[in-house]
Amino acid sequence: MAGKPVQRIILAAVAAAVLGYLAFWETVWIGTTIKYLTIFAALIALLYMPRIRLPAYMGRLMTLIAVSAFPTYLLHRFVPELLMTPASGALPIPVFHLLAISGGLAVGVIVNKSWAQLRNGMAMARNSVRLTQLYRRSAPFLNGANANSNPTNIERTVAGGAPHSA
Description:
Helices cover 74% and strands 0% of the residues. It has seven helices and no strands.
């Protein structure tokens, strides 16, 4: 998108104007300011450092947060508005905001992990049903019967009796 230095500078200036306006003049909450400043910092980092080497644990953490973005977006307001309401007057404002942001992120990650476990459990259940159905369909062939045998012939053949046509 911005391969040349001039393009990078123009993009950074436009981003600074737009995100600066959103962060400082249209903000209703300190979390909004932090959000837009974080987006600006990430944009600048990606413009000038397209590859950022991270330790493995940090890469896993970033991936977990990125994968959990949608449930975090949907549920992050539950933490400050419902769960932390009794503590809003007792905590210093910066501490309250920090706990609200980290709590909203934690709720998103927990919901995402729970949803993944539920989805994986349902997939395993579907696969076990499919395997059972496949086994039942292939059971006659596993017992040495041919494709033209009916179940009564298979049972008699397996039991040691002489197969006959029904």
